[in-house]
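>> received
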Amino acid sequence: MTIAGLGEIAESVRRFTVLVEPGERGNGSGVIWSSDGTIVTNAHVARGRQARVSLWDGRAFAGEVFSRDVRRDLAALRISATGLPAAAVADSSQARPGEVAIAVGNPLGFLGAMTMGVVCGVGPLRGVGSKSWVQADIRLAPGNSGGPLADSRGRVMGINTMVAGRLALAIPSNDVARFLRAGSSVQWLGVAARAVRLPRPEPSRVGLLLLEVRAKSPAGLASLMAGDILLGTEEAAFSAVDDLALALEGKEPRVLRLRFLRGDYRKVRKVSVWLGGLGRSSIAA
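>> returned
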């Protein structure tokens, strides 16, 4: 398999690939998604609120997790750096079986290791659930998680996540873009949230646990608090952070009515959150 300029392509991918160390045993990889310091990795790599992020040039930063989706196994961190070599991102819906796939990561302590293979398919994989994957015949090892799966031009098609049999599975780049848009919308509400199983008496359902509520944000002005669990709007239940992001879409001033749990979680409460400007918000028991 001969690719013109492969050395330069591999080097460009290495430059936007980072080492992510969660402060516990083990480490993973990540991708510089934007030059202002946004890093994308797997949720199972960045398990806490912070992680150490080391760049290709030897610099290291404290990274703060600002968005996480455990169901899709994605996390986004922010580091205090600008002018970074951000990844070029491909449209993962255009990935085709047989095209070249390049993975870069930090497997087994080897920094910036590269391996090559081919794309085998894009879509769900039997036995792994209904989620879509970029599937590649490529060898991954512990430490590759969170790193890029790139095409022959060095553009990111997906985020390497796990191995199923002989296939490497990567979260499609289009799913990553949706995850980041959802995180931006939720930040606009003024909260950090993650999906959790609801406590009794409804252990089979999912809600959104508020990890943080910023003061003077729409959520803060509505008296929502860290520890509250959002169940949904008046129209629909939440099962992922994306659902909250969809409820927040639109720029016109309006009232968003949410259902949530607080305290002993035995009573469903309601809150009206004013979006798009100054206004009154209130909680009803």
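>> The longest strand covers residues 113-123.
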